[in-house]
Amino acid sequence: MSSSPDGHNGKLYIETVGCQMNVLDSELVVAALRKDGYELTDDPKAADTLLFNTCSVREHAEHKIYSSLGRLKYAKRTAPQKVIGVLGCMAQKDQDLIFERAPHVDIVVGTGQLAEIPRLIKETRSAEARQQQKAVSLGRRDGSVLEISSSFQSYDPLRDPEMRPTPFQAFVRIMIGCDKFCTYCVVPATRGPEQSRPPSHILSEVKVLADQGVKEICMLGQTVNSYKHTEDGRTHRLSDLMYAINEVPGIERIRFVTSYPKDMTDDLLHAVRDLPKAVKYLHAPLQHGCNDQLKLMKRGYTVEDYREMMHRIWETIPGCSVSSDFIVGFCGESEESHQLSIASIREFRFKNSFIFKYSERGGTKAASLMKDDIPEDVKKRRNNEMLAVQNEISEEDNAEFIGRRVSVLVEGQSKTAERKAARGEDASAPGDPLATQLMGRSECDRIVVFDGNPRLAGSTCEVEVHDCTGTTLIGSIVTKEVQHGSSGILPILS
Ligand code: SF4
């Protein structure tokens, strides 16, 4: 096994939980460490640098990380040169508690300090005696807004093209933090105050990505449509970024997540409607269908406000898909209010909904002022009821596509084909040994599967839909247009 000058074997293992923001953070951290000679491994036993990029939005995600850390206790005892790091939201929220619960952890790095990771790993490894290190940002009450904001640095170094989930899709962070302070949410504490990146930086990053062969840009922000930055005397909003990115040669699709319903302005809807590269899809979480619950959550809008937004979307962008998040079993949720959430799924006909059972989070207003009083079995039952209704709606709406043609950006092998290949089974399509089941997304973000050559990954195809499930359109390829720069590379991950 090769060894680097500072005595590590160069193998890095990273485990990531949580949202797209965490996926991007991990990608950037790995890219930085590759410059120091590290190579990724998916075997924790083989690595002597192990990082855990964490999420604090739900208790389950935290338990998962503590279990993974627990499994390393013995490994660290027998191989003390291993460096174990905890990054991200849980690191910012729990800080020293992580060292208490998992004393074998060497470094704790919050979301706003990720640039420090290579230095911290080096110092930890070269220290004569073991020394735990921590790099975290200020808490929301620990200074002036300016001081707190500057302690949370957006981490956006240029990346290694090999590190993206697929070679032709890239996340681009356009803002960090959140100032909405929904009562159940830890994000304003773990990711700090809302800060938008300068448009010139974002555009340069997009141009570099386009030169590397990226075709789809997904702009990320906790409330991405609240983006606002003044540069050269002009205030830029998300719609301005979209117009600018639309002009970048090589970029074919532009999307953004996650939108805050109250900030869904007409200029943005017009940009989604008018720009040929804009994906006709919005992720705008309603969270609950009952005004009393929305008020307790401090979401800042009513169901009527949301309905007004949906009517504007439907009128401005016919055919636009909208997806939502819901919290079920929040404090004091009655059976009637739960039924209102179900009714809202039927009314707004979301493409899909991410439904989560309420999980009390320390440090939030809801945890300190409200009682988590809905029993777990009731949360579970309500969750299942909502899922059943959403699945019914999704399947009905997907059935509308049967017989139609959709334009699909091919992402690579479908999960089914990947699983078959992983088990060593024949993953080729019936009657065509060169083809396999591929998956991609339509212009309105629907998952589409069809048989085709894996070399189509990264190209745009016309697919005729002949069947569907609640989550997937199933079709056959009609035409294929292999784009420049599509080298037939299969995705690393999908
Ligand atoms: S808008 Fe609310 S739920 Fe979303 S990140 Fe901000 S505080 Fe959390």
Could you give a quick summary of the protein structure above?
The protein is of the alpha/beta class. Helix content is 34%, strand content 23%. The chain folds into three domains: 11-147, Rossmann fold (3-Layer(aba) Sandwich); 152-394, tm_1862 like domain (pyruvate-formate lyase- activating enzyme); 405-481, Nucleic acid-binding proteins (OB fold (Dihydrolipoamide Acetyltransferase, E2P)), CATH 2.40.50.140.
- What's the overall average pLDDT, rounded? 91
What's the total helix number?
A: 17
For the biggest sheet, the summary is: 6 strands, parallel
| Coarse structural class | alpha/beta
Side by side, the strands of the main sheet go 2-1-3-4-5-6
Rg, Å, rounded: 23 Å
Proportion of strand residues: 15-25%
The appropriate CATH architecture of the largest domain is Alpha-Beta Horseshoe
Instruction: Give the total of domains.
Output: 3
The CATH class of the largest domain is: Alpha Beta
> CATH-wise, what's the superfamily of the largest domain?
tm_1862 like domain
Describe this structure in words.
The structure is a single chain. The protein has helices spanning 20-35, 59-70, 73-78, 89-94, 96-101, 117-126, 145-151, 187-190, 199-211, 238-246, 266-274, 291-297, 303-316, 335-348, 365-369, 376-399, 415-422, and strands at 11-16, 39-40, 49-54, 83-88, 107-109, 133-135, 169-173, 175-176, 195-196, 216-220, 228-231, 234-237, 253-257, 281-283, 321-328, 353-357, 405-413, 428-429, 432-441, 447-452, 460-468, 472-481. With 494 residues, the chain is α/β, with parallel strands linked by helices. It has three domains: 11-147, Rossmann fold (3-Layer(aba) Sandwich); 152-394, tm_1862 like domain (pyruvate-formate lyase- activating enzyme, Alpha-Beta Horseshoe), CATH 3.80.30.20; 405-481, Nucleic acid-binding proteins (OB fold (Dihydrolipoamide Acetyltransferase, E2P)). A six-stranded parallel sheet has the order 2-1-3-4-5-6, with helices on both faces. Strands 17-19-20-22-21 form a five-stranded mixed β-barrel. Helix 1 links the parallel strand 1 and strand 2 (39-40). The two termini are 30 Å apart. Residues 178, 180-182, 185, 187-188, 222-223, 260 line the site of iron/sulfur cluster (SF4).
